[in-house]
Amino acid sequence: MIGSRIDPLTIANLHMRAHASEGQLFAAVLECELRSAGLPVITIRERDLMALATDWLQRSEPDIRARTSALGAPLGAPWRADEKAAALAAWMVLAGAIPHGAAAPFKAGQTLEGP
Known about the structure:
Number of strands: 0
Helix content: 40-55%
Number of helices: 4
Radius of gyration: 15 Å
């Protein structure tokens, strides 16, 4: 999952630009390593995750939010948004909810947009 695909060079604030560049580097290295291990990679923007989850899991957004929140209860605080998003993505994979063909090889940097 990624936050955005914005070009860091378009960000005027140097501090924010550095964070955006760091995020892109992390995502690129992770994607490269996963692909080199022979694993399929799908890049989903965080803002598209819930729409995809409701469509692919065939559940309502409130149900998904409640179930995802409940997953963290045994772990205790903090159970932040990024952890909930990762749990939701894992749920989608484990449930076999990724539509046929969605796990086909994507070119580096390609995203899977919401419906």
